[in-house]
Amino acid sequence: MGRPLILLCNDDGYFAEGLNALHQALQELGDCTIVAPDQNCSGISHKISISTPLRIREVEDSVFTLNGSPVDCIHVALHVILKDRKPDLIVSGINHGLNLGEDTAYSGTVAAAYEGQVHGIPSVAVSTDRSLGGVFSFKHVAQIARKFCGDLLAGDLPREAMWNLNIPADRVQGLRFTSLDSRSFQSSVIERKDPRGQAYFWIGPYQPNFESMEGTDYDAFKKGYISATPLKVEMTHFDVLKILNESPCLTGDYLGGSNWR
Question: Would you call the peptide bond into 243 cis, given omega within 30 degrees of 0 as the criterion?
Fold first, then answer.
């Protein structure tokens, strides 16, 4: 057996320092190919381009950029660039900022890893925050990600989950397997005027308030631990479904005798 093939992506752009650090670290584990957006796509979630033509540009050997979203990059990588060899692992990141709790729904970094899982490929999203000194410690974070990815490739971790890793930039206490935290979303919309007096708007910065429940990703991270959250694409609310299916007034003849047409 040859070296594993690892597909790298992100949402900060192919030029991002976090992606470069991850690339350097993961080359110890296998052959790496980068397919990443040609611009910053933070907060773009699971966007897929169905009405925009996509163009590939090879920046250097095994490094490609695309005028699309992170999910577009995964599709093009699997169906065009790597069509003759399926990756053994997809790793998205290192994101310049955390992806904790329900914020994962907005993340292009997490979306790229989700898309890998959809295609049956073990996938990891890696994120970090600035250190107490105000800088990103990408080399340190990349080495931790390399250890986790090595364990995943070796079969020491479940391969059917999409793993969301949030790694502290400062001293790490250890690793905890966690669930997603809940948070209240408090955003703002800022209005401005262009030179012609027409209004335009910026979605303003927000500071989410997490519940910080024990056992969640946010709780682990704030205590200095790596949070490793196994995620899946399935979104059915089974608790609600169970209640509805067991309720005699909501099942059976819902329209009170009318035929469904």
Answer: no
Q: Residues for the chain: how many in total?
A: 261
For the entire predicted model, the pTM comes to 0.90
Q: Which two tokens stand for residue 143?
A: 């080495």
User: If 0-12 CB within 10 Å is exposed, 13-18 middle and 19+ buried, where does residue 246 land?
Assistant: exposed
Amino acid type, 183: R
pLDDT digits over 135-189, tens only?
Answer: 999 999 999 999 999 999 999 999 999 999 999 998 899 999 999 998 766 778 8
How far apart are alpha carbons 239 and 25 in whole angstroms? 42
Domains of the chain: 5-182+211-246 (3.40.1210.10)
